[in-house]
Sequence to fold (390 residues):
Amino acid sequence: MKRRLVLLLIIITLLTACGKKKEDNKEEKKEFSASVVAKDKTVELNERVTNLTDVEVEKGKITSKKEEIDTSKIGEQKITITVEDDNGLTKEFTYTIKVVDKKPPVISFSKNLSTTVGTKINLMNGVSALDDSTEEIKVTIEGDYSFDKVGVYKLYYVASDSSGNESKEEFTLTVKEKPAPKPAPVKEVTPVPTPQDGTFTTSKGFHGETKNGITTIDGIIIANKTYSLPSSYAPGMNANVTAHANEMFAAAKEAGYTMWNQSGFRSYEKQKSLYNNYVNRSGKAAADTYSARPGHSEHQTGLAFDVCATNRPCINSNFDSTAEAAWLSENAYKYGFILRYPSGKSGITGYKYESWHFRYVGVDLATKLYNGGNWITLEEYFGITSEYNY
Ligand SMILES: [Zn+2]
Fold:
């Protein structure tokens, strides 16, 4: 009897407690009057969002502090915010932010690769792929190719990240024919044809004469592409020319320039070896624009020389723009020298501009050819050609 009463009391107490709790809940729901929209969100890796981004509240206010969400890792995060309604009642709301990686990796690579047939190259050399995430991206090659077969192969680099985003970039692999072996060097050039002895009149009416294979016009020895010298002609450097050259160099020194004769008389044999070297290096056509065939060099006359100056480029086109070259062009005629291959006259002389090559012709003729600074060539003055006929 007593035990039953106790049991009953316990049941009543429990029921009462339950009822009260139900009532409490009812009251709370009734009283919290704010309307809150905080939906789950999906954002891109490293996108900037806060816990309050896109949360809407009516008839109340958010009391949570605004905080930046860490979106540097892929995954889901539960975000909880607190809202206070107009009556001062607070309530917590929870929603989910899902961080995803939707951007494909970026591949850096070179668009055109090439090799010669039979030579393998590493197609992955210098190739890399980057992504927003810190994960390493694997790159693979798509397409068929062979290093043993000449062709242009269209291939792809494919990179994919762990989220399944894929990048595909086209590149070409060119497998080229092996270069043809270099032609055997030209060992010899055609021997110089000996000019016929005799006299002639030039197109400008000057008297020309070829004697023992040496041609003079109005007393001036001519060695150009039309008129050659015999291989046996080897007078050495002319002493009179050297004396005039030294006078000129002394005057140059007074003007502040130190110059000298770097290359004067040159024998037929020496010229032959020089010219053949140039032909082997750059081919006959190119060599003919700057080097004379043996027998055609003015250096063989012993009347011409190449000038070099202290601290200046020696016997090359970089000398053209120097003060020394300008001084020579303006003063050489006073000592009987002419600028033999002036600028813009290669169609006439057969040679490129040589700001360093001077030829002795005597002061009278040199002054005429100087022409107030607008140099005339020997070919123009005498009315002769400078062209190989072989
Ligand atoms: Zn020269």
